[in-house]
Amino acid sequence: MAPPAEPRGDAAAPLPVAGFRVAALACGIRYRGRDDLALIEVAEQTAAAAVFTRNRFCAAPVVVAREHLGREAPRYLLINAGNANAGTGEAGIADAEACCAELARLAGVAPHRVLPFSTGVIGERLPCDKITAQLPGLLAALSQDNWLAAARAIMTTDTVEKWLSRRVACGGGEVALTGIAKGAGMICPDMATMLAFVATDLQMDAQTARELLRDACALSFNSITVDGDTSTNDACMLLASGRSGVRWHDLDDAARRACTAALNGLMRDLAKAIVRDAEGATRLIAVDVRGAASAGEARAVAYTVAHSPLVKTACCAGDPNWGRIIAAVGRSPVDDLDVARVVCYLDDHRIFADGAQAAGYDEHRAAKIMSAPEFTIRIELGRGAAAAVIWTSDLTEDYVKINADYRT
Amino acid sequence: MAPPAEPRGDAAAPLPVAGFRVAALACGIRYRGRDDLALIEVAEQTAAAAVFTRNRFCAAPVVVAREHLGREAPRYLLINAGNANAGTGEAGIADAEACCAELARLAGVAPHRVLPFSTGVIGERLPCDKITAQLPGLLAALSQDNWLAAARAIMTTDTVEKWLSRRVACGGGEVALTGIAKGAGMICPDMATMLAFVATDLQMDAQTARELLRDACALSFNSITVDGDTSTNDACMLLASGRSGVRWHDLDDAARRACTAALNGLMRDLAKAIVRDAEGATRLIAVDVRGAASAGEARAVAYTVAHSPLVKTACCAGDPNWGRIIAAVGRSPVDDLDVARVVCYLDDHRIFADGAQAAGYDEHRAAKIMSAPEFTIRIELGRGAAAAVIWTSDLTEDYVKINADYRT
Questions:
Q1: ipTM entry
Q2: Of B241, B276, B311, which one is at a domain's C-terminal end?
Q3: Is B122 on the interface with A (CB under 8 A)?
Q4: Does A405 contact chain B (CB < 8 Å)?
Q5: What is d(CA B50, CA B54) in angstroms, rounded to the nearest whole number?
Q6: What percentage of residues in chain A have a pLDDT greater than 90?
């Protein structure tokens, strides 16, 4: 039973964003009958910020994208699905550079203005010829209205495309944001990667873009986990073209808060969509830790709970097993944790307090909460005022089936 | 397919150990038709050392045992299976103390000379009456020859009892060691706990016992993981009665090494037996990390690999998926890891080097290695000379089935 799809913000189709054109088509790397190559064209003067996986075993496209971005803001993002170009050594880097160089040649820009992104099988060489053969057609197909096609073209084993748009009236104008994403951690056989691209026509400088992206990622893509297996290819970009005429610099605090909230909300909802679509998942679980001494501590506790196989299987079963939750809290890396102060809830139903099952605990009610497609495990630590939410999925037999199938 | 049982050291049945008597019987806490209560009597002058779970949510018996042990060496260890007396708050502590006090009264010792241990369901009150009703019979049944019965009485969802004995000729005499253990991390529904008790007739002081136990645990029980879910009740004790007449103090270096090796080997083999019996497990996997800058670093890398759901499901499948192994290495908490220096082997077959699949990689051979009930994933980091081995099991559908079954 797949969890219900989240409403798509306030738009029925992805909003075009001034300063960006998109294209998608098939180059036949691995899939048949669907697009697997996407291009995002970025207007000059666009501020760009990116966050990449911190996995030291990072894929060739991540190495190249980082290096190119360090030199100058990009004009093109070239994304392929079906091959992650990871575990390919120096040859993989050369392949990524070659695809960028060919696109740059056709588009009339310097090679470092192209950023490569890949997702798919690890350990196989990127079929550059298939990609470069489609570049002229890709460039010719650029349009403001292809975000949905791009969202589909970057899918690997996602069962649904993921996009969201938001509009914010501010600064005497209107700002649009559209984001696309794919993936669910590294949960599918050899299909690495979470990718996310958010475009906006708000104007800002690169420093602001980096700060907004960093904060938004902390609350969104860096607050989800399916199985704790950080991919080799994760990347998230925020691109701000400025073509709306609304400038961050000129916005008052209230307007800035509105734009930030729209960005954070969009990215958070894309992130949750990724977890909902996690292979084998039947539930979206929010682990909401409050009363921590620091944000880092709150996250440490939340991740320990979110990664516990025993908690995740209990969630699959709809089993209100507070013992497993508290055992996970008790082993989290927090100094001097006083379990007697810990209070635990399922949604608003209190299940654990004072070191034992809570007075008023109703197993039937607790089981009902945990049988829903979405619920919250809330943990109050009684140590301060910091908090964090981590979203995760349950651990099911399907997850094991999918990942234990012998690779052909 | 359960992994083959490990040979039981150099004895066909547990060796009696001078200075210790054991008893086991049924008190009917939860199980029918089997023993669930065990008693180990410890001679005066026995040096005792213990290691307990560091889970802050520790069970009442752990709280009481720690406190009693801090006052004086024990005369009795009282162990029950079927109820962990965890998550029971202050009432649980009172229950544990009451059982200790009643045994102490019957045996004629001070209450703090009794250490309680429990394993089983979390969150339910300990049925003290059932336990105390059997204490006279338990005391009357004490004998040097009941180690096997005790090993069976402390089982919860173990499928096989776990015991080992060793003999060491040294210091002009012979030293015997016998150990019993149960559990497999916290992998069974509500059945918390790994417990291990090692008795020897070697004489040593308490400080030596603590040091030997600490070192032995580091190489054994603290180097296994099934699912990373540290129990609330884990405990391991080393008891040295001295009744062999052989004194640690008088042994030369070679003899000390022989005794230490026997102890470490016994505990390591008990620990491996626990992992082999992990619920749902079909494989015992050694994650052998070498060339680390420190032991802590080696362990951090080994645990990251051993806890990775994607690596564990690949092991279940017998799928030589080096990409998943290296992705786990790449996300381990090691500063400045240079993946280009990492070399990875399955047993002695090299599968990854120089940032890509190793030259000479033979998928058929690799798959054959991974289809065996036991194998080693060896990872060379090229950063130093430190090493560590962590043993783990695979992640299977059975694990999920067992732990996602709704608790009745």
A1: 0.71
A2: B276
A3: yes
A4: yes
A5: 12
A6: 59
